[in-house]
C-alpha cells in the first residue's frame, strides 16, 4: 500500500488488483493451487491473508495434480486449515510417503476423501478413519498385505457411515467393502496381475479372514472396471455373487467394463434376470458376451438414461433403435453414448453384413434425432462407411448434435464419398505402409500453411465448423493397435489402414483448427499425412490444447511430419501432455528444442519401434522445462543407453521435482511388461497406454 501511494498519478491510473471486489478476487484466487494460497499468497498482505482463508477456497482442497506438493507442504497445509477442509482429493499422489497420511487426521470435518494412488497401510487407514466421524465418501487402494482384521472398531464405525466407496484392488480382497453397510455408490477398479513378480500364478480366491460379504441393500450405483487377466474376472464374480442373491431395489446404474472375453455364468444370468424384473436403470454397461445373442436389452427397463456403453458388442443398429432407443422415441436425457468397436451398430442387421459395408444413414439419423442432447459420443474402432446418398453422410448427420463436447470417430468415416467411391488405391495416390527402404514415388505437393486452403465443400470441414464447442476429438484408424499393449509383449506388426481412409491427411487435420476450444486431440493412423502442415494450423488456432496424442501418421518408414510438428509445438503454450507413437522417430536436439517452447508441459511419452534418442538433448530439455514430471520413452536404443539416461535424469532432477517419474526402456525388450507394472496408475491410464477415452465412463462418475 505504501508503494502504491507513492506512485505518480500516471502510474496509479492503471488497474490495481487490490481494488477489485472481494467476489472477483475470490474467483481469481480459485484458480491458484490451495498450497500456494495458504503457504504463499496469504502472506503477501492483510487483504489476501483474509481472502485466502475464505471458506469457498478452503472447503475443497485438490492436490491430485499438484506435482510440486511434498510431505512438508501437506503437513503445514493440514496444520493451518485442516479443520476447514470438507473435501480432500489426494488421488494419484504416488510420490508422497505413507506417513503423509497421518496428517489427514487433522481434518476432523472431512466429508469426502480421495486417496486413490496413495500408499496407505491397513494400520494407517485404521488410525486415520477412526478420527473422521463425518466421512461419507472414500477412495482408497487395496494393496498386497492389506488386512481388514487390523481395522479398529472406531474405524469400522466410520466405514459403516460411508455411502460412496471407490476401491482399486491390486490383490484379491474385499477390502473395506464388508464394513461399509450404508453403501449407495460402489466403484471397483480391478488391477490384479495374474502373476507375481517372482513368476508364480495368482489365485482369484479371497484371502483367509475375508468371508464377510458386502452389503448392497442400499446400492444405487455399481461400477466395475477390469484390467486384462482371469484373476480380475474371478474376483469380480465374488463381488457380483451377493448382487445375484438379492438385487437392490434402488439400483439405477449398473456398469461393468471388461476387456476381452468375460463369459456369462448362471449367477450373472440370475442377476440380469432379477434386474430386468425389479429395477429401472439410468446407466448401463455390460461385457460383450452378456449382450451378444441375448434378448437382455429387450427386457431391461430404463427410466431417464444418461449413459449407455455397448463397446465391442455385436449389437446391430436395428436392435439399438428398437430395444434401446424405443423405436426412435425421445431420449433427451442421454448425454453419453459409447459404441466403440460396435461394428454393426449403424446397420439394420448383422447376420450377413460385412464390417466394411456402408452404414444405414436412417439408423444414425434416428439416433441423432432421439438423442439430441448428446455431449459425449464414441464411434471409434469400426468401419462406418457412408453411402453416396446426398445429405446422408455420417459427418452431415453428426453436425446436428450441437451440444457435443467430446467425439471419437474412425478415420474412414470422415472421408468424402465422392472422392473415394469406386477408387482403388494405386501407386500414385497410396502412401506406402511397409517398413524398410522406400521407393520414391510422385506425390502431390502440399502447402505448408493451409489457412487459405479451406476445403469448405468437405463434409468433415463442415462438421468441425458446426461443433465449435468441442473440447475432445479422437480420429483413430479402425485397424490401429498400439505397439505397447497392457500385459503382453510389444506388438511388432500392424494392420494396414482401411481403404476408405487412404485419402485422409493434411487437409482434414487443418479442418480441426476450427475448434477454438479444443483441449484434447488424438490422431492415429492417418495414411495421407504428407507434410503434417495441418498440425501447424491446429497449433496456431487451438490455443487451449492441453493434451496431444499422435500415432502412425503418414508413411510408416519415415516421420514425414517432423518439421511441421516442431513448428506446431512452438505455439502450444498450454500443452501439458504429449504422446507420440511413430516408428523410426528421432528424438534429437531439434525436436527437444521445439518442445521446450511448451512451457506448461508436464508429461511426455514417446513410443517408437526402431526409434532413436540423443541423451544430451533429453537432459537439456529436462533442465529447460521445469514443469515436466513424467518422461516415458520406449525406443529402439540399447538397454545400457536407456538405463544410463534414466539414472541421469533421476539423479539430476528428482530432488527439485518430488513427483518425477522416469521410464526409459527398449520397446521390444522381453522385460517391458515388468517395467510397466511399476508405472503409477495415473500416468499409465491417462497417457502411457493408448486407448480411446471418449465416453469411457459415465460423466461425473466420481467427484
From TrEMBL:
GO biological process, one term: SCF-dependent proteasomal ubiquitin-dependent protein catabolic process
One GO CC annotation: SCF ubiquitin ligase complex
Positions of the F-box domain: 22-63
Superkingdom per UniProt: Eukaryota
Entry-linked Gene3D superfamilies: 1.20.1280.50, Ribonuclease Inhibitor
CDD domains, sorted: F-box_FBXL18
Domain F-box/LRR-repeat protein 18 LRR, residue spans: 74-660
Name this polypeptide is given: F-box/LRR-repeat protein 18
Record organism: Colius striatus (Speckled mousebird)
